[in-house]
Amino acid sequence: MTTQHWLNFIDGEWVDSAERLTILAPAHNQPVATIAQASVADADRALEAARRCADSGELTRARPAQRVTWLLEIAAQIRAIANEGAQVLCAENGKTLRDAKGEFDEAARYFEYYAGMADKIEGTSIPLGNGYMDFTVYDPMGVSLQIVPWNFPVSICARSLAPALAAGNAVIIKSPELSPLGLCVLLKALERASLPRGAVNLLCGRGRDVGAHMVSSKHIDQIVFTGSVPTGQSILRAAAENAVPSVMELGGKSAAVVFADADREQVLNSVRDGIFFNAGQVCSAMSRILIHRSIYDEVVDAIVAMVETLHIGPGEENADITPVISAAQLKGIEALCRQAQEEGAVVATGGEGVSDRSGHFMRPTVFRDVTPQMSIAQVEVFGPVLAAIAFDSEEEAIAIANGTDFGLVAGVFTLDLNRALRCSRRLRAGQVFVNEWYAGGIETPFGGVGLSGFGREKGQEALYSYVRTKNLAIRVKGE
Ligand code: NAD
After folding, report:
1. Active-site residue among 73, 92, 106, 249?
2. According to DSSP H, which parts of 243-295 are helical?
3. Can you tell me where the transmembrane regions are (predicted)?
4. Which domains does the chain have, with CATH numbers?
5. What does the pLDDT average to over 29-49?
6. What is the signed CA dihedral for 185, 452, 351, 255, rounded to 10 degrees?
7. Ligand 1: centre distance to CA 452 (Å)
8. Which candidate, 172, 138, 174, places its Cα nearest to that of 465?
9. Among 182-186, 193-197, 256-260, 299-303, which stretch is predicted with the lowest mean pLDDT?
10. Residue 229 C-alpha to ligand 1 middle, in angstroms?
11. Structure pTM?
């Protein structure tokens, strides 16, 4: 695999560049492959191609049933290529083969789901009385620029790409520099679905030049960004110049609130998935657990016992704890763990990287005796690190859960239905899980409040992020 060289996909063709980027495997720090690093000139070609395709009306001229056919064909092609894609994604990203395959399966599901909506984007008629006819239609935005992060590149890309195509937009995907190869496989699947030329373009380029150039372009009609808060803020400043509407899916510091009556098995399973899946590199990870003081020691001890059974290893072995994406990521996680200890948090297990491996492995970590204002309870770590905080009352739990700048997801663990519903309404988050972390799916709207961003992805609601409402107000003579 080391000799393989991947290309960008611009205006219906695979395109090389003078500059190459070497992709390193997080599990052993060795080269996996190289990829053409797009230049600003490549970005301009992609922008022109997408603009031409959007303005030509090729994606919208045919009956909507044509878009249904395209999306179903893409889904079938993704399923056909999923095993190849999983190998590539596992190697470049460090995640397990099982989860890498899961990303391709989920990507196919997004196309199937939005295929079901592509011919149902219906407007409304508005009564204005005699002499008038008034109705709304939904037009595509035009050119949708979609900037993708490295943690779930394939499924996050499909999450935005599928509804954008369903609504008739042309798309430019900016892939993440640390993990761009899985998206090349995804594009191979799309290429086989005979979409109009220029409808989907894929560029791997540096965020600070190619990404920054594209977000400032007058050729784009929308920015869909998933990534970190500082990058999102800089993109929003650029978008403001041309008043380009944006969807922002940013970070999180999400809390599970565990009451004394919670089902212990549900809590433990949710912790395992919630913070250790994908080595904690999940925007909606359960990075804080708030536990009623009466069961705090019992639950923390049970979590620690569970964590100490987890196997650390490469994704190829389907290990429980896979490497984090890069040396810099590991360094950042370790620094936050040191800071937590300086501020008085106690390492219950883990707390540092694994020094006897060449890859970037972080020990699954639990901090106990965390107080709400400590940095480990406020800053997004983006690693397998859980902060356990004790609370005494429901009121206090809600205040702690809502007491960060973020608001992506939250969780409540209790067998008391009234308490679950009461807390769910008061938690400041775009999605609340009750008794199972990640209980939602591609059908359920997802997005944040506060520094977690705005706009919604997933579900029927997301489709309306990819259209503009136009109203037609008509004077009817003689009525
Ligand atoms: P990042 O912000 O560093 O990069 C994301 C993307 O933005 C990359 O493709 C990068 O090249 C590009 N980019 C960087 N600078 C740019 C600029 N100035 N202009 C345009 N594009 C630019 O984020 P990351 O490190 O790849 O991902 C981790 C972050 O993403 C975490 O904070 C995580 O919480 C967040 N995230 C959020 C969600 C969500 O749905 N809310 C999902 C996954 C990840």
Report:
1. 249
2. 264-276
3. none
4. 4-250+453-471 (3.40.605.10), 255-441 (3.40.309.10)
5. 97
6. -120
7. 12
8. 138
9. 193-197
10. 8
11. 0.96
